[in-house]
Amino acid sequence: MKGTPETPQCGFSRASVQILGLQGVDPDKFAAFNVLEDEELRQGLKEYSDWPTIPQLYLQKEFVGGCDILMAMHQNGELSKILEEKDVLVPSEAPKEPEAPKEP
Description:
- The chain is mainly alpha-helical.
- The chain contains 4 helices and 2 strands; from the N terminus they run H-H-E-E-H-H.
- It has a two-stranded antiparallel ribbon with strand order 1-2.
- The model has no long low-confidence stretch (mean pLDDT about 90).
């Protein structure tokens, strides 16, 4: 991405981070690299994925897509399925059993 999740340096990077947050991605299972600090990394990613734009999302070393693909997958529900399959979401808490009313 351009920048960091805390301080994205372009609108597409910001949108991608927001989508991942809305989806409930566990920050402990998320790594980001600022391509603005490393031109070799930036060009290498574009060649590796054969995708011309940054940011790029990879799940378990597999290229998913750029911001436009993330947005489309988010809107059609596909992203939530793949994130769940890859086990990268914050674990949900088990619902608590309601307490029985106390008698006087």
